[in-house]
Structure formats: structure tokens, C-alpha cells
Amino acid sequence: xxxxxxxxxxxxxxxxSLCDARSLPKSVREPLxxxxxxxAAVASVPATLPGNWSSFGCFSxxxxxxxxxxxxxxxxxxxxxxxxxxxxxGADFVYAGVEYAQECxxxxxxxxxxxxxxxxxxxxxxxxxxxxxxxxxxRLNVFWSGQTAPSGPLTPATVGLWSSLGCYNDSAAAxxxxxxxxxxxxxxxxxxxxxxxxxxxxxxxxxxxQECxxxxDFFNDGAPASDGCxxxxxxxxxxxxxxxxRLNVYAYDGAFTSSSSSSSTSSSSSTSTSSSTSTSSSSSTSSSTSSSTSTSxxxxxxSSSTTTGTSGSSSDSGSSTSTSTSSDAxxxxxxxxLGCYTYVQTDLPFRFNSLTLSPLAxxxxxxx
Length: 368
Known about the structure:
Largest sheet: 6 strands, antiparallel
């Protein structure tokens, strides 16, 4: 046994010398050293940042309660600390944060629920620069501009001819306002209401800081929400643009009334009443009376017409009276045949299904 053991030792000793990289030829040693050097280059917070921005710490975060909650975007291939700071700075935010290698968040204050943790918790390399750290799982590398946060954001009561209806619930699977405008990035209340008006809609909603939706009525049980509209607009940090599954909704003045909406600052209505009576006998007599009244102003109008006729052609007799009330022409009414009428056009656009009819709203009706 002893000679065999010594023989193994003599074989192992030359092999062990290979473990010492210094004993290897240079042509072999240098290629082996290159990946080791790259592995040793650990991602870190950039030493030089744009302007007066500086590192503020590694903060906790949560999907349900964002530490920086006013604006955000994701870039799976080109997220860097500098790109995130540029995004937040461009929207006048004083705090910027990178998370999970690819996410950027902005705000003018850090949530009180956030805690400052060790920098070692923020160790994920940015997707756009592997030498920089971009937070971690539920961890934010936070940066500060050195400036004082501006006065708190608000929800504009009016934007031009649009009025705020408040904060509404929403869902990606069942949109309250189902027509997406496809606008991203520098969204403001003004840009969204303008886009919806151009497309012929009377309701506009901003959501999740950078999304814009339109419609002529509320859908999928959309209703006012008591909270949740806390994210500021990506294009204007002084305005609120909804939140996660929350819409700040605006209505075009004088162009919207809906029974499904529990609050509205602008409305218009139209009421029409018609009655007809027919009596038949062996003689032939007919008479008709019609009247029309139109009142316009701030989106409110009313009209009424009455027709009475008597004719004799058979032994049957009958009478009927009908009254109908419909909401504004910009919502989908319950249609019924009332005869042939003339109309006067105004410049109020509205949309019916996918066809834009502009202008086409009746303010004066006369029976023919």
C-alpha cells in the first residue's frame, strides 16, 4: 500500500502546480485573467452625475406603495442612472430612482413608508450600463437634484372648455373610457383633452401619469373613486394624471350627460313630447297643429311638438299618447321614429360608434 500511496502523491504534486497561475505560460495566463477581471468589476453608483444631482441612498419600495409615486417608465434594454435622471428632471421632479435594473421612478417627495437601507441591497446592474447599479428587487437607488420641491400638485378644475369630474376607477381588462389615444411620455391634462376633442369625444381621462383615454360615456361600471389619483403628469409635475387603475376624468362643457355618472359639472339635455289622436268615421276630416320651441345656451336646449289628426276610413277608432326624454345627443339615445324634420347645425362635434360626425347637432327642429 505504501508504494502505491507515494506514487499518487508524486503524480498529484505536478498537477497542483497548475493551480498557481504564475506558473502558467503568458499566452495561457492572460486569456484566463480577462474574465476574472470583468467579474471583479462590480457595478456601482456613478461617481459623476448630471448637474447638481447626487446619490441619496438605497430605499425600500413596493408595488402596492411606491416610494417615488408621481411618474415612471421602464426600459428593458437601455436604462441608466443618467437616462432616469434626465427623464425626471425634464418633468421638474427633484427625486429620481432606478429599480430592478430597468425601472425609473420620479417624485417631489419620498413616501414616509420608505426606509433607507444598505447600498449593498441596490446591486442590480442597469440594462443600459452594466457598470452602474439600478436598484434591486423592491429597492431603489434614489438621487436628488439638490433643489427644493415645488408646491404640491393639484387637479385643475377646468382646462379650457373641459371640466373635472374627479377621480374614477379603471381596469386594464375593462376600461372605464375604452378609447386609448396611444399617447405616452410627456402627457398633460391639456394634451389629453385636446387629443380627445380632436377625435370627437366628450370625455377624457388621464391615468398612470402618462396614459390618455377617451369616450362619450362611462363603461364597465366606471364610477367615482375616493382616492388613488395621486400620480402627477409625466409632462407637468404640478398636475395630477390619475394613478394605478385610477383616472382623472374631464368632460367637455355642455356636451355630456350620463345616468351612469354620479357627478358631472357640465350637462345638456333635450326633451321632446309628441301626441297624436286619430278617430275614424264615415266622413273624412283632418286637422293638424304643430309647434316648435328652441332654446340654446351653454349646451342646453329643449324642443316640443304636438300633432293632432282626424281621418275617416273605417269603423275602428283609437288614440295614443307618447312622451320620450333622452339625454344629450353625444350619448347613445333610445331612437324612435318621430317623422321628417329640418335641423340647424352647430359646431359641436360628437362621435357615434366609429363614425365622426362633425358638426351635426340639432338646436332647432321644425316638423314638415
